[in-house]
Amino acid sequence: MLYHLLFPLADQFPLFNVFRYLTFRTGGAVMTALIISFLIGPSLIRTLHMRQKGGQPIRDDGPASHLLTKQGTPTMGGLMILIAVASSTLLWADLSNGFVWVALGVTVSYGVIGFLDDYLKVSRRNHKGLPGKAKLVLQVAFALAAVLWTMRMMPGEYSTTLAVPFFKNLLLQLGWFFPIFAVLVMVGSSNAVNLTDGLDGLAIVPVMIAAGVFALIAYLVGNAVFAGYLQLHYVPGTGELAVFLGALLGSGLGFLWYNAPPARVFMGDTGSLALGGALGSVSVMTKHELVLAVVGGLFVLETVSVIVQVISFKLTGKRVFAMAPLHHHFEKKGWAESTIVIRFWIIATILALVGLSTLKLR
Description:
This protein has helices at 2-6, 22-51, 64-69, 78-92, 98-124, 132-153, 177-196, 204-221, 224-230, 241-259, 268-285, 289-295, 297-316, 326-332, 337-357; strands spanning 161-163, 171-173. The chain is an all-alpha fold. The chain has one domain. The longest helix is centred in the N-terminal third of the chain and has 30 residues, at 22-51.
């Protein structure tokens, strides 16, 4: 909004020329989202406390400590993230850019799915919310719409291809399978973040790390000069996604203020599904789907632990882990929650650095 209102006045007021720069508007989006989170956070948490009698339902089969330390904590804190991201993006981004609307659309729509799931859990006082099949159908439907919209905006040679990291000219032509693959990326990323969100601060920091990495990727991929120098696949217009990801980063910082141990609020599926969907959609639009699997490797690891646990139990009747997802396994082994969270943050940082190396090693 500010870009459209103030940049045209740059001839009369040279100071407004700064709105042409993505770096300035991305920084503005970070700070705006952070401030909005701080402003609405206390009142939103109070409202959630009043409306959610007993807070988020705690699973009886989970770690016993959760029944003592997390009982009564409200959920749906993802609303804080959604409001801050949407407001900040609309304020600082070029709203004529279709990629921004796709990213916002996926984020908000997945947030709505998560909100319905959280609402049913809280209202029924049961950890089972929206039926799994219904949730998956909605996720696939919104992701497919986003993918088809994205394909229309992509340069022809990229609309159905998959870029392979570390190879400068390797594009795999997926044809009709590309929409299916892209939907799997978005839905898989969304549910992977959801599975990771089980301890105070565990999911939000890796999400912010991934958002920072992809903000840089989006900026480089959307710039013809930098993309050419680094031998990346240039996708015009994707640079504007840096503003959206800046808003995501700022809102994450604001949410972490209230989610830091001991958490005053949980993001719930409202936040986790939305954040995962946002990362998945950006990876598709920037042609870095495989890099997301590296940068978001922590989310992949948590998801794989659940898959392995389920398959092992069904085939052999035995569990590989004391409990899945993986962070609960370490809780059962006696690790302190803060130890698990910080070590997982370290892993997420290392994986982010590995993902960044793909920009140069070609």
